[in-house]
Amino acid sequence: MHTTTQAAAATTGALPLAEASQPGRLLSLDVFRGFTVAAMLLVNNPGDWGHIYAPLEHAHWNGCTPTDLIFPFFLFIVGVSIAYALGTARQDTSRHPQLLLRVLKRAAILFGLGLLMALEPRFDFAHVRVLGVLQRIALVFLVCGVVFVKTDWRTQVWLLVAALVGYNILMQVVPVPGGGAANLEPATNLGAWLDRTVLGEDHLWSQSKTWDPEGLLGTLPAVGTGLLGLLAGQWLRRKAVPVAERIAWLFVLSAAAVVLGLIWNGWFPINKSLWTSSFVLYVGGLAGATLAALYWLCDIQGYRGWWSRFAVVYGVNAITVFFLSGVVARWLGMWQVPNGTGGTTSAHQWLYQRFFVPYLSPLNASLAAAIVCVLIWYGVLWVMYKRRIIIKV
């Protein structure tokens, strides 16, 4: 992980706003990524986890809320980014070993950062959660990167179909060893059994200990989300096809994916925690339609303003702000300060009780704290943006 300046950014995918429409560059992708990571910060940092507006919570199990769109949108963006970052170099087969090494290196760094987030500040290796958000991003990036370098789009379509159908069969047909028939319940499904068997309960999500929403088996359909982005990115790069046709077909295919996801929901329910095949198609279709709309607005029509600048500031340092915000939030939750009554409370609670709770209703106070968090990090990223400081992974 290192910093780069404006000159280096021009070749690595992090451009100032004024230059974002250069050939081979998608301003819309930076905007999409920026809004996605800002939304991730919003839902991850409420003032009070007991008071959250319903759209800012995950679905309890089956179903899909706006919050459930955020992570798969990011994985979809990962796929699109691979197509743009490696698309030209992939044509030279002599560079394939170099590209594969580059993919492996970045995946290893992302996975390492995820483990570091899980370990700090106590570094309790005996109970560290092995998998997580950054780890899943790393695995999806690794598989999609290798697939992109070594296969064509037709093979990628077949791999996508195989991943989604195969996952459906595994989850709904294969019996759970020692647990009876196949099922889709949180702690007793095949994926939960695999996580407990391979990783052990001490290395799973701390809020469950029996299953992990970023588990091993669920990574298979998550790769499918990345493949959808990979295919969308390759389609948008086809300069031989008129731009209006590219956008129209992306909308059409995205709508078809949403419909197929809703149909599949009838027997394999839309579920983010399981990352079901219906969820992949439904959310992937919404992501494709969003990208198509932003591509038309930002890259074709040239619409720009405060909203796109806000998103780009977040988008060029997306992984950086996700990592740092997670570390800071954890430290604020552990740092104890006097509460004025002879005891102590966490710095997070002290700030929340002092500056938000007295002035707003519980729900609005919690939301306001999350919004302030997003704005504070925007200020940090704006300074980095103005100084052309871009931390690449």
UniProtKB/TrEMBL annotation:
Keywords: Membrane, Transmembrane, Transmembrane helix. It comes from the Bacteria. The keyword Transmembrane applies. The keyword Membrane applies. The chain crosses the membrane at residues 69-87, 99-119, 125-149, 156-174, 215-236, 248-267, 279-298, 310-332, 365-385. PANTHER family: LD22376P. This is DUF5009 domain-containing protein. It comes from Hymenobacter aerilatus.
